[in-house]
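hey so i finally got around to running the thing on that chain from the lab meeting. sorry it took forever, my laptop kept dying and i had to restart like 3 times. anyway pasting the input first so we r on the same page abt which one it is
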Amino acid sequence: MGYHHIAPDDVAATPDRPCVQRSIGDAAGLEQMAANVYEVAPGEQIPLAYHYHDDQEEVFYVLSGTLHVETPEGTFEVGADEVFVVEPDSPQRAFNPESATEPAETFVVGAPAVDDVHPYDPDE
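ok and heres what got predicted. didnt touch it at all, straight out
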């Protein structure tokens, strides 16, 4: 059996990200899912690019603030204690707009934990 009690603030931030990312999955040694806490300041985004996944499903649970998620269907505003779910092959870019007055803190789970990300160009 294996158990992990983790304080997200004790997990080092992942370098070279557009916002603060703390990998709970890496800290716990998870292999089947990715689990991250993001602190997204006004003007920052979570992903490195507007993208989609072949197989990975993602769940964004907003802890505080408001997360905006750009999709080909429009931009969704996801408030605190709300959840946004992204199915495979669904382009998205999660961000906190420049005009925001507070950071957005979000817990994101993706499964399976695969590197199947592809850039998405909405103009193509």
